[in-house]
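Worked example 2:
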Amino acid sequence: MNNETLIPLLGVVTDIRQDTPDVKTFRVNAPEGGKVFEHIPGQCAMLSIPGAGEGMFSITSSPTNTEFMEFSIKKCGCLTSWLHQIEVGQQIAIRGPYGNGFPVETEFKGKDLLFIAGGIGLAPLRSVINYVRDNRANYGSVDIVYGSRSMDDLVDYKEIIDEWCKEDGINVYLTIDNEQEGWDGHVGFVPNYVKELGFDTGKTAVICGPPIMIKFTLQGLTELGFDKTQVYTTMELKMKCGVGKCGRCNIGAQYVCKDGPVFRCDQLDEMPNEY
């Protein structure tokens, strides 16, 4: 963190996409065009509307995108309700980037990767997945397991079907919690689907989703033979001020905003059970 990340910058909403009934993806540019600032996959930014409040959100676009930044935001409270009322052309305040991001240029490089997401948990992983896609020669095979309550709640569904599913070396496995008319894919919860698929334990895994999903998915990976040093997750939902001052993201000796939000799962074992 440096002083520049504390200063809010001006962003302009240039596009809004309705992904699901309660998730919108906002495209943000600097007033002069281009991105507001650079980031690495997994980092977050603070978005604010004067008078309404501010909140921390994952940057869902890849750093390889040089034209704009994107944020997929679920309507679930006061601030997000305000954000969902934004129209194209409106200005917002944005500061960041915050957090350590995923080790895409170190630990992930040259590895076969397994991404596992539930619901809006795909948003933080989209940045990493698209970074890997844009630097394909640096990584091995890519498997993506993604599930949601229903087919209507699958975020970025069009991008998944039109782009991810059609690329060589990328395998996408979609599932929804319950049977639904018009859905002929897999039905069942993500942790069970992961065990059913039985992935090679030589992969490096990345998990993001509701805490209960992460818990049971990690258990399933362990049963398959994965070591916790092979598994990463992100805890950006615990981030508040982003700079280690408010203390609300403190877990034991760790500050999620400064030491995370990306952690290896063996590092989580060293934290108190409150996480």
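The first strand starts at residue 9 and ends at 20. The CA atoms of residues 3 and 243 lie 10 Å apart.
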